[in-house]
Design a protein that fits this description.
This protein has 284 residues and is an alpha+beta fold. Helices cover 27% and strands 27% of the residues. A hairpin with a 4-residue loop joins strand 6 (223-225) and strand 7 (230-236). The protein is elongated, with a radius of gyration of 31 Å. It starts with a helix and ends in a 10-residue tail after the last strand.
Length: 284
């Protein structure tokens, strides 16, 4: 393909519509470089077309260099030189080029992946729902089992529709707030003397398979918030090695208690679970 024809194709490629429907114009520098390619008489010495491309392409920005890869096989072969993409990466992320090899397969892939901000994407529909889960909750005071129930997911999802009578205003405000939480009432209620070691374990199982996950494993209720009338425990979630960058997400569980005037005992009427580090809605 002659260079003048290639120029026309390059300009057409550069004028392609963007995702938002607007026409993307090549930069002034890029347009000037493409014009230079169409006039062989202006080339210095006896440079052939490939040598000229190797002089021009390093002057282009990443978007226009990528557009040139669509013009012809010759242009694509020259534009795929990873050194060109290393130079572009060095302008955006200078420190990454201090490594002898890029963290990806090559600098072209690195630039193509991260050169523009990604739009926020809506979450895909969840593959699980509360209807397909059962929660196994066990609570110990010292070594004595004081609560042990299998709680169906829909029951935990429905939660405490009507807060118990006699709870504090602050706890009532928390339970009635818009933030998503999973709650259930405790029947019969139980009391725990202050100072005793209280721990909790929670497993969750899928009804449609034999898959089970450990959410909390003998986590200690080591913090009692007297202002909000909650005793709190948490564990960090363990994720598959297939997801090495997911970390720091905690599963929280709270014992909700009354103010019965006895400073030495907490009167538990409910349980709350949440994953507030990562989820603020049912789908999440």
């Amino acid at each position: 393909m002659g260079l003048r024809v290639s120029l026309l194709v390059a300009v057409q490629v550069s004028l392609m519509k963007r995702d938002d429907g607007m026409v993307s114009m090549p930069s002034q520098r890029t347009f000037g470089m493409l014009i230079l390619l169409s006039f062989p008489g202006t080339w210095p010495g006896r440079m052939n077309s490939e040598e000229v491309l190797k002089v021009v392409f390093p002057q282009l920005d990443g978007k226009d260099l990528a557009s040139c890869m669509l013009v012809s096989k010759q242009w694509r072969d020259v534009a795929q030189d990873d050194y060109l993409w290393k130079c572009l990466c060095a302008k955006r992320w200078p420190s990454i080029c201090k490594r002898p090899q890029p963290p990806t397969m090559n600098f072209y892939n690195l630039y193509r992946t991260f050169y523009k901000r990604r739009r926020c994407q809506a979450l895909l529909p969840p593959r699980l729902s509360f209807d397909s889960l059962d929660f196994y909750i066990d609570i110990w005071s010292e070594e004595n089992l004081i609560f042990s129930e299998i709680v169906p997911g829909p029951f935990l999802k429905t939660g405490l529709k009507i807060p118990a009578e006699g709870i504090s205003d602050m706890l009532r405000y928390h339970l009635e707030s818009s933030s998503y939480k999973m709650t259930l009432s405790v029947e019969p209620r139980f009391s725990i003397p202050i100072g005793q070691t209280v721990s909790v374990s929670v497993l969750v199982a899928r009804k449609d398979s034999n898959m089970v996950a450990c959410i909390l494993d003998k986590a200690l209720f080591d913090y009692i918030d007297r202002t909000s009338y909650r005793a709190l425990a948490f564990n960090y979630l363990d994720f598959s090695p297939k997801h090495p960058f997911i970390s720091g997400i905690r599963a929280w569980i709270s014992l909700l208690f009354m103010d019965d005037g006895n400073e030495g005992v907490i009167d538990v009427f409910g349980i709350e679970m949440d994953f507030c580090d990562a989820a603020s809605s049912e789908d999440e």
